[in-house]
Amino acid sequence: NEVLLNGQWLPAAQATVSVFDRGFMLGDGIYEVIPFYRRKLFAFEQHLQRLRQGLESVGIDYGTDQLRERTAEAIARSDYEDGAVYMQVTRGVAPRKHHFPADTEPTVLLYAYPFRFDGFEQKLAHVLLSEDFRWHRCNIKSISLMGNILANQAAHQADKTENVLHRQGWITEGSHTSVFFVKDNILYTHPNGPYILPGVTRDVVLSIADELGMAVREEAVAVADLRLVTEAFLTGTTVQVTAIGSFLSDDRRLVIGSGSAGPVTRRIQTAFAGRTK
Ligand code: PDD
């Protein structure tokens, strides 16, 4: 179990950072999770670009070019067939202050871990629906995930696999996934912007929908319109394209369509599996 910390491969147990690292103390950093299928990276450039944009938007000065080689190295050094590469860049080590310290070196961590992706077509997510109480910069993939953690824990406690969130009645995304709906034979997903993470899987699904000639609207679906929704599914690096069977909201359960993956979801799942080959 090796990790790459600041350019050095180390056994995980020996990889340590300062207690004054701003990632540890303030959650001041940006991360990515990049999947690989049969040892082949999936949508790597899109993930790297999002990381670059995130770093830039919070003023962490770190050149990401070397991460291409390092990511490939992480997979080559592992014996995992399917998995993901986790990477995070924090602002570095400095006495605790809110504003940016001058002249700190970012702390960079990267490692591969095994993950089984196959079978997402057989999974069915029963999800909680609740108020999105996160900040208004959800497009930044910040390592400070308290809002997402609390949302996901609420789902876990309700025996659900994900918490799908809404802002004042408009559905945004899941605690660690993007969300799509089919309504009147049109595919809906929340537009990019400050209220959602621009999901890489979301983008892949939009391109698949385009290829399949589906009608698509990047518009939010209202909670009040959920009863008109015939299909719903989650997308993301850790769920691929997973059908939603039901929503639990205010102790009321709303079953979507037949309660299992519908025809649009099926077509997208098949095309998605094809792209990972
Ligand atoms: N989560 N929305 C949120 C809030 C997320 O955290 C994620 C990813 C997504 C899906 O993005 P992508 O398709 O690029 O994986 C949407 C990662 C995997 C995580 O935190 O583990």
Automatic annotation (TrEMBL):
The keyword Transport does not apply. GO terms for molecular function: catalytic activity. Keywords: Pyridoxal phosphate. Its cofactor is pyridoxal 5'-phosphate. GO terms for biological process: amino acid biosynthetic process; carboxylic acid biosynthetic process. GO terms for cellular component: cytosol. InterPro entries: Aminotrans_IV, Aminotransferase-like, BCAT-like_C, BCAT-like_N, Class-IV_PLP-Dep_Aminotrnsfr. Belongs to the class-IV pyridoxal-phosphate-dependent aminotransferase family. This is D-alanine transaminase.
